[in-house]
Model the fold of this input.
Amino acid sequence: MNRSIQQSVRSGGPAGRLLWSLVVGAMSALLLAACATTPAYPPAPTSLANVDYNYHIGPSDVVNVIVWRNPELSTSVPVRPDGKITTPLVDDLPALGRTPTELERDMEKALSKYIRDPVVTVIVTNFVGPTSEQVRVIGEATKPQILPYRQGMSLLDVMIAVGGLTDYADGNAARIVRKADGGKIYSVRLKDLLKRGDISANVDMRPGDILVIPQSWF
Done:
């Protein structure tokens, strides 16, 4: 904007009023276009009765391996970034994506080469889980992060874990990208849930969900 027009705007002259009308019209058109192009997503299902969840071991989990009557073979080991573990007599056994019970049977099979009828118990601690089952929160959360999914996890649980919304969040425009449904997108009402206490806005989460919280326009 040049100096003469700036002076016209300040003085309220015809050129200033015309320019102001053009600016306001352009901004309104942009906002309407933005609203028109914003896709409307269906609301996320409130409850998910068909979630049959079994925990699968992920990298950075810690597993306690107990071999009955063989304390020298019992140990606590972390799952390496490549998804494998190493214990006495067992080298590089894949653990990533296995349930604790499946890993128990795998270890018993590996140890049967050295001891008769081994009985193994696997106890998982420091839960992280595989990346395919983690819940990710991005955008205008106070503490965006990756969370291990747990049975019965709700949207409210997730928001408490990430510290709620920032001052710039458009909570009711948030959405969930659900990998379990082939990447389908659902809308969620975080502002209603957190600011207004509307519990009807709470929904069940699923393993692998991505919660996207956009920034408000104003």
User: Anything to note?
Assistant: The chain is about 25% helix and 20% strand.
